[in-house]
Amino acid sequence: MRQERYGVLMVNLGTPEAPTSQAVKRYLAEFLSDRRVVDTPRILWWPLLRGVILPLRSPRVAKLYKSIWMEQGSPLMVFCRRQQAALAAVLPDAQVELAMSYGSPSLPAALERLLGAGITKLVILPLYPQYSSSTSASIWDAVARILAGYRSLPSISFIRDYAEHPAYIAALAQSVRRSFAEHGEPDRLVISFHGIPVRYAREGDDYPLRCEDTRSALVAALDLPPEKVMMTFQSRFGRDPWLSPATDLTLKGLPAQGIKHIQLICPGFSSDCLETLEEIKQQNREIFTHAGGETFHYIPALNDEPVHIDLFRQLVSEQLR
């Protein structure tokens, strides 16, 4: 009888290897070449990407990365490696690998290690709580392309998302309560998700619905009045209309409404990264305070908190039953 060997593949977006223009340019070139991320016809997109966006954007983004870079490296990579090690510790019977959709550690290399070890059951865990075609589906596409080159495949479970999982909501609620206990209850709790183009949602991406599912479950767990909570979308890119209301524009208008104390959480990010540490914690704090806001607190991502690792353990274990 064949002995079962388990593998877990954790996948996040990726990060430049260094806070330099050249490293950022390599990373952005790969990221923005994914048709799931930008579906503009290549004949129009390639000249714009190569001739305008990469030369202009890479130096600016490199400066932003420098402002958050940790001694051990990019925050996203640091926290993802910690998550990988912690999950491996609580799943001793499974080989746990980490991969990034763009950059390194690469998906092909991680899958090669897993299949080379002879695993018979593989659980793919995209580190995106809310499904989107531009994130989770992109991982599915990439894995399918890579596995097309292998003769023998394991059985595969793909965790689409976990937007309403009780352990996920409980972990978020714990973070919010801890922040309230430390800083007092704010005038508003702002729940900010990464945005996507409105067109993607019209064409069938249920990401906005999954964000709403998370918001609704978290508000219920916290037992907060609905009027004390706001859901917004951040990180707009390009000229297409994106999901609204926009986080930065919302924060700019709140002080004029008498809302001077906010706390903000980004439940769509499993690890702190450029979009949380620089865009939210730095840029959006400045936007709010310059508009007359008095108290702004960013509630960190779940990162390698024990409750977060236990959530991952539960998600994987549910697939291996």
TrEMBL record:
Keyword Lyase assigned: yes
Pathway: Porphyrin-containing compound metabolism; protoheme biosynthesis; protoheme from protoporphyrin-IX: step 1/1
Subcellular location: Cytoplasm
Transmembrane segments: none
Cell inner membrane as UniProt keyword: no
Major location (coarse): cytoplasm
InterPro entries: Ferrochelatase, Ferrochelatase_AS, Ferrochelatase_C, Ferrochelatase_N
Catalysed reactions, semicolon-separated: Fe-coproporphyrin III + 2 H(+) = coproporphyrin III + Fe(2+); heme b + 2 H(+) = protoporphyrin IX + Fe(2+)
Enzyme nomenclature, EC number: 4.98.1.1
PROSITE patterns cross-referenced by the UniProt entry: FERROCHELATASE
GO biological process, one term: heme biosynthetic process
Residue numbers binding Fe(2+): 194, 275
Top-level lineage group: Bacteria
MF-aspect GO terms: ferrochelatase activity; metal ion binding
Any single Gene Ontology cellular-component annotation: cytoplasm
EC top class, as a word: lyase
Alphabetical keyword list: Cytoplasm, Heme biosynthesis, Iron, Lyase, Metal-binding, Porphyrin biosynthesis
Function text: Catalyzes the ferrous insertion into protoporphyrin IX.
Family: Belongs to the ferrochelatase family.
Official protein name in the record: Ferrochelatase
